[in-house]
Design a protein that fits this description.
Structural class: alpha/beta
Number of strands: 6
Distance between the termini: 67 Å
CATH architecture of the largest domain: 3-Layer(aba) Sandwich
Shape: globular
CATH topology of the largest domain: Dna Topoisomerase Vi A Subunit, Chain: A, domain 2
Radius of gyration: 22 Å
């Protein structure tokens, strides 16, 4: 027997469906929403419905956007000759937060994974090649993940770009700043050794 009325039970159940939210956290959030002023609950509900109605993919880079073009593709200060390829919108956000890149992006919406039936036709590689052919891209930075799938995707794209007069680079990977070597896994250590540079 539940201690909560059906309406609260339903809210807890719906919140618990969100990734990373367990039943106890869902219960706390439901109680917070119940205690919050009505206008705050309405704002939350409206913002959830609003993203379902308005958010789409940018027609150029496939980032999340409220319009045809995202904020970055609409920014004339960005360097359109410098293109960074990432797997997901969250990867683009992570790079943007670093402040280290001022070019444009192309979001693949996935990575190659033949074992899972994901080939080049299942991610946005065709659209990427179209951009390479149309835009005056001078350098492509491959910023896919360092997983097997991410590495395979980067290698595949690098192979496709061999016939174009474009510089192709791969983001460095290895030991994080402040990292203790004895806790670094073997793959990361291998990458760190391969990506070493002169001081």
């Amino acid at each position: 027997m539940s201690y909560y009325p059906a309406s609260i039970q339903k809210l807890i159940k719906n919140i618990a469906r969100l990734p990373g939210i367990g039943e106890k956290t869902a219960e706390r959030l439901a109680m917070h929403i119940l205690r919050a002023p009505r206008h705050e609950a309405e704002q939350l509900a409206h913002s959830i419905l609003n993203i379902k109605d308005k958010v789409r993919f940018c027609t150029r880079c496939f980032a999340l956007s409220d319009g045809d073009f995202c904020n970055l593709c609409s920014d004339p200060a960005r360097d359109s000759s410098f293109l960074c390829v990432v797997e997901q919108p969250a990867d683009m956000v992570a790079i943007e937060k670093s402040g280290a890149f001022h070019g444009m992006y192309h979001i693949l919406s996935g990575a190659l994974s033949p074992m899972n039936g994901i080939g080049p036709e299942n991610i946005r590689i065709r659209e990427f090649i179209t951009r390479i052919q149309k835009d005056r891209v001078k350098e492509v930075v491959l910023a896919t993940s360092t997983t097997v799938e991410g590495e395979a995707t980067a290698s595949y794209i690098a192979l496709l770009l061999e016939k174009y007069q474009i510089k192709v680079t791969r983001i460095a990977s290895g030991v994080p700043m402040g990292g203790d070597l004895k806790y670094v896994d073997q793959v990361t250590m291998k990458k760190a050794m391969e990506s070493r540079h002169a001081l």
